[in-house]
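Re: export button greyed out
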Amino acid sequence: MPLPGIRPSIPATPRDDHAEDAPLSIHDLTVAYRRKPVLWDVDLDLPEKRLIALVGPNGAGKSTLLKAALGLVPAVSGDVKVYGRDYKEQRRLVAYVPQRESVDWDFPVNALDVVAMGRYRRIGWLRPVGRADREAAMVALGKVGMADYAQRQISQLSGGQQQRVFLARALAQEARLYLMDEPFAGVDAATEKAIVALLDDLREQGNTVLVVHHDIQTVPAYFDYVVMLNMRVVAHGPVEDVFTEENLRKTYGGKLTLLSAAAEALAGRR
Amino acid sequence: MISSLAAASHAEIVPPMEALWRVLSLQDYNTRVVVIGTTLLGLASGLAGVFLLLRKRSLLSDVVSHSALPGIGIAFIAMTMMGGGGKNTLGLLLGATATALLGIVAVGAIRRFTRLKDDAALAIVLGTFFSAGIALTGVAARMPGAGASGLESWIYGKTASMLFSDALLIGITGLLVTLGTVLLFKELALLCFDEDFAATQGWPVGLLDMLLMGATVAVTVIGLQAVGLILVVALLIIPPAAARLWTHRLRPLAAISAVIGGLACLVGSALSALMENLPAGAIIVLSAAALFCVSLVFGTEGGMLHRGLGAWTLRKRVGRQHLLRALAELAEQSGKDVASFSTIRHRRSWHTATVRGLLASAMKDGLVERVDARHWRLTESGVAEARRVVRNHRLWELFLITHADIAPSHVDRDADMIEHILDERMIAQLEGLMAGENRGHVPPSPHALRPAEGTA
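Workaround output, generated via the alternate export path:
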């Protein structure tokens, strides 16, 4: 969407030379809801084998960035490549963990059924879930420490357990790029620790994990790479380089009034 | 009553038992076709209804059925004007399907282009299309030589007026929807549970959604003749809602819902074949409602009886465990294993009747014995059981004090509520946390026990 005269007040690092086969390469992505832009010119290459935090204030467009990258919300412009090729050809390599609240946990299935959904694409059309896939789902449940709860109706699980079921479903996909929307929301300290260990394992095995994260206190402890977002990418890079007070102020501070005023004006113009 | 009992295809009055038998044994060919066709419709609507309910789109079928009426009117007028008879069922159904689909599109458009919520969008479309339908069928009825007297049977449903070909069409459509739903079970389940996730896996969620809507339209439109457009929504909602009271698993849920739908249609169409004055649609829905009521009372997952029984057994277990702990702690304090009735009663400020009941039931299970008229003591197995109860209570108290920083004066009441639901695994965890607490050892109470009144 051309916006004459309006450029982000702090330009994101220009990156015209996109890496050949970055796990996720987003080019010039702009997303709008009902004419109100929520993401502007996002240009981003994620490095391989990293645990990446995606941080930013409420309404910064963190979830939208994941959803737009996955084609779940329509983008005004931009393209997304996964390991060097168009995302649509590479779906098998991507696992998505939506926010826990995005589904109805009163749905009549048990934990194992949900995890088995991670295998559905492999199973293909019309065929029921076979034994091998159920076993793969069991293994995934075991990895998140939920093997004992396989037969438990999902509404009877605690919030942290439900979150782990969602993670297990992503593990069952055996992907290489994991996009997780607030996996730490509403979980207790013990579950948080377990999830961090799990993310570390994923990275050790050569995967890339992008996590929408709310608690900026824990970013240096949990992650080695950070993307700071507020409607556009403020900064991204290794945590020790870019996770600075100045960048945090740019991300969370009130310097974006011009940008949001422009967005409001656009939304109001009929 | 008896005079109204006439066999479906004969005008003469036959004895009721004989008529009943004729219908139930499906001897009459026409009745057989109607009943089987309608039952297949019930199966299909039970199945499709499960996914509609899970997708929270149940009311959409109400819009579909009401939007079908203008199509029926238009088709009737068009066919009459072209010189053919206006009552060709296939033609009417095609018209019904066309405007029903238009209704769905209208709901989607309102949802998309306005800020109105679903309920408003549904109400607007339903009202508009139904009004248009009434106007159009009104015009149709007054057409010269139309003989459109049968049009109101679409509103209330009437299996008796069904022709063989109608029933065949209903049966085949029902069978197709049933087959399609069974084949696409996994895909539809995924769509209903987590649409976004399905899309990231590359499933064509738009197509799947359209298939589900298509099944809904098919079941609804063919259900018009049997149940009528006002009631057909009930055939899609009541069976899955009733099935939900029996299971928490999707496959059994779908199976039970299909059976309830099929059974309701079987009973309804058979009864209406038996008694011509009974409108089939109402009887079918009432049968489904009766099955829902049965499920509401007897359902094993949230049925009233089941819940009541669960609460009753829990209350009983809690009372039993309180009694055992009271006796054990009284013995611990006084050093005597015999306690008087009033001491026991004062222990927890029980009502006299409550203690009497608890003691009687514990005696029946061999946990306590009566020493004399006013005194009781634990039996050997009662002592063992009481040790376990006291131990759980105190382990939990210790846990609260050492790990949850709760003041010792408060732990008794907290533990009182939790101890009864501790399972093996939690106890093992507690034992792990309380280093030095070996299995079987009963730790001393971490707080002062309530003074034992009445003991000297």
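The longest helix of chain A spans residues 189-204. The button fix ships in the next patch.
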